[in-house]
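Input chain follows. Return structure tokens only.
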Amino acid sequence: MSEMYLTGAAAGSDRPHGRPRSPAEARGTVRRILSEQTRARGTVCAPDTLSDALLVTSELTTNAMLHGGGITDFDVRVVGQNLYLSVSDRERRHPVTVSPTDPPGRHRCGGRGWPIVCRLSHTVRVADLPTGGKRVTAVIPLS
């Protein structure tokens, strides 16, 4: 079973299709979709699984806003026992893992989001978009 959900006009709001205004709004969409899907299937989404999905959502949307020139598209799909979360932005550069310390050995602020996304996701793909920018898709296991 595959279900696709989009934020924005496709979901009945007055905002442009696929563009949450904040990580909190994106998390709300993921929470709603997982709730609807588990209820429809007669299953339960474990609290740890929901937390992982919401954290990945926060990291991807925050990174798109801070480093990618803004979110250009956002969608969520539940396929079988996996949540597919995609966030697109304007930046062509792919995410990278940075050292927690700089060359002189001082601790850096930030730079931990991408490793978190990679650790909590079964698969993470980054694809260049033909119109510019990129799409990051994380697959988060629901079971």
